[in-house]
Amino acid sequence: MTKIVILGGGYAGLRTVRQLAAAKVDAELVLVNQNSYHYQSTQLHQVAAGTKEVADITFDIQGVLPRGVKFVLDRVTTIDREQHRVLLASGSELSYDYLVNALGFESESFGIPGVEENSLPLVDIPTALRAKEELENHLARYQYSHDENDLAIAVCGAGFTSIEYMGELAYRLPKLSKQYHFPLDKVKISCIEAADKILPMFEPDLAVWARQYLMDHGVTFYTSTSITAIEPGKVISKDSSFNANTIIWATGVKGSKVIADSGYDQKRNRVIVEEDLSVKGNPCEFLIGDVCAAMDPNTHRPYPTTAQISVVQADCAARNIEARMQGRPGIPFTYTSTGTVCSLGPLAGVAQINFLGHWKLKGMKVGLVKKITSDRSAFELGGVKAMLESN
Ligand SMILES: Cc1cc2nc3c(=O)[nH]c(=O)nc-3n(C[C@H](O)[C@H](O)[C@H](O)COP(=O)(O)OP(=O)(O)OC[C@H]3O[C@@H](n4cnc5c(N)ncnc54)[C@H](O)[C@@H]3O)c2cc1C
Q: Has the keyword Metal-binding been applied to this entry (predicted)?
């Protein structure tokens, strides 16, 4: 029997499994993931800021898998692409006829010294929990240490993750101040960004609104400031340095290291894929989600790596595998954005929506749009059970 192995139980991988199962493809379906749970990575910043619990953004994978799908709880180390074998950390291996590689993203240090040792990325549940714990430890320590660096938080990068994290943090700080007895007005949040603006994916007026909102809630922005090193308790740029005992690293991500380790022709662990999302020269292998660079035919640049796009890529890859198995031609991947939402804590946010026209939203109503988006995404991956479990 034909065997389709799907690597990664994130947005792209889980959705592929569901679509292949729904299409009743005549194949054995095997999903490999390193955890028993799926996490909504679009909400990791909330766990890091402490506004959501892990249970709010996770659900059990096996509980939502379609009947007949085999689940392998293991870590992929490499792929032997010539022999069509996936090698696993446990020492076992899986053979495949078709492979869907959806192993997602990792933190990117851009080779800047000290990033890995001295800062906190937000890329999965353990890193989000560690960021939360370190933040709270430092805030709690202030009442004994009176070290102002315990109340200083440096957030590196001013893209989506950083901005959403600071929104949650600003919302939670008054509660933390009561809990850990520190003066709220002494907290210093510095956001350090190499570009001259924040939220580059947003229209300028919305980005300016978000910036002002965060400034009103205690954030100081240092744009056009390239970070050159991170030392313990210190972010260093060419002209200045920022002392902070909590340093969050959210300047960008790269694809899974399994990509480089498996000999793909890649850049930052992302592979330029064919228009049907297969790998050049290997029509039985598909790369989707954050490990792939799918070219946008309009801009001639890769589409951004987002959860929304990962899910649409999963639909395309599933259809193309089915077509290939039946000897039919595949379809090219295309994507039209329905919009982008950036929350600034539960009470505010900015959004640009393309639905029955083009809408720009800011303020409280964006919180509702974000909630609908998260619920829909859980539903798309695991049905009603997943939606209810991750709430
Ligand atoms: C804080 C934050 C906020 C974001 N907000 C948004 C947003 O609002 N909207 C949006 O569209 N996008 C957002 N993104 C981007 C989005 O999360 C990613 O684009 C999306 O998760 C990519 O999906 P994926 O399935 O490719 O990978 P992932 O979601 O990373 O899934 C990969 C899966 O593979 C597993 N895995 C990894 N390596 C191995 C291995 N070696 N062996 C076995 N299993 C492995 C992982 O555990 C995970 O389950 C955000 C990202 C972050 C970090």
A: no
